[in-house]
Amino acid sequence: MNQTGRLDPEHVVITEELSGSDIPVHLMYVETRDGLYAPIGLRKPPSEGPFPIVLLASGNGGEGMAWVRDWVKTRGFIMDRLLASGYACAWIRYRTEVELGYHDGGQLVVDRRQGREMFNRSPLEYEDEIAIVEYVKTLPYIDADRVGLVGMSHGGEMVLKITSEYHGAAVGVASEPAAHEFLALAPDDTVTVNQATQLRNIEEMQMAEVEKVKARIDTGVARSRISTIQTPLLVMGREDDHLQGIFRTTYDLLADAGKDVEWVSFDHPLHGYIFPVLGDDGEYHVDAVADQAIGAVIDYLDRYLQS
User: Fold this and answer.
1) Nearest-5° angle of CA 202, CA 291, CA 84?
2) C-alpha angle with apex 295: 52 to 128, nearest 5 degrees?
3) Averaged pLDDT, 221-243
4) Which CATH number fits domain 13-103+143-305: 1.10.3720.10, 3.40.50.620, 3.40.50.1820, 3.40.50.300?
5) Residue 299: which of 173, 165, 163, 127 has the closest Cα?
6) Model-level pTM greater than 0.90?
């Protein structure tokens, strides 16, 4: 809102109350690199701040503000835990993942034509998250030096892509990172191709063994991407996951490169166990393993964001 109480079209913020909480969500549209807008749902402790902030990402994008509002309401447990620990936090959304857009597209190059910007390719989903980081740093109640990233699955791979070329986040957590593209992983015969679109389905690739993964990645490309990472990272695995080899290989390569990185792995049936889902009865039923894992995430964030 602007000083007259009217909605500012260039800085849209809509505040919604949340059932069972006295901390509302501020729904915002954040301008990205090419002038389009990404939706986020931000919550903050009730005092003035400035607060450290944790941006939460899951999956491969799309679905807009409807997705954000749904996940604030149905995956709010992690937000409540962060708020109780003194963090502002936001569920973020970004444009849909482009198959091999990162691997084949190369770094974004910016030029000018007729007084306006010209790109060599469209911005990608991880670059939307970079734009969101830069935006939240401008908010008066956020400490710009204390921004953390928590990404799960493709969101975890985005943490790797972001920190490989951007050094504006203080810490990152890559939980169950589906880092196929970042590691330049060659598909095996478990991958199927949609004949109608010719796009690959890599979600069910059987990559539980580290040695199998290491034999199929382009080690030179992966190490080059890792070499530029400066951000401390926690990599989280999941026991018996068919992609556990990818999760562990990600950590191993970071550790081999001398990066500030740690590894934990939990035995849990839910992909995305750090983001508990609201039950049909309107309650979160968080088991001991998920509770321990969330505690480990917050303890790790505290070391870099609460000092």
Assistant:
1) 110
2) 45
3) 98
4) 3.40.50.1820
5) 173
6) yes
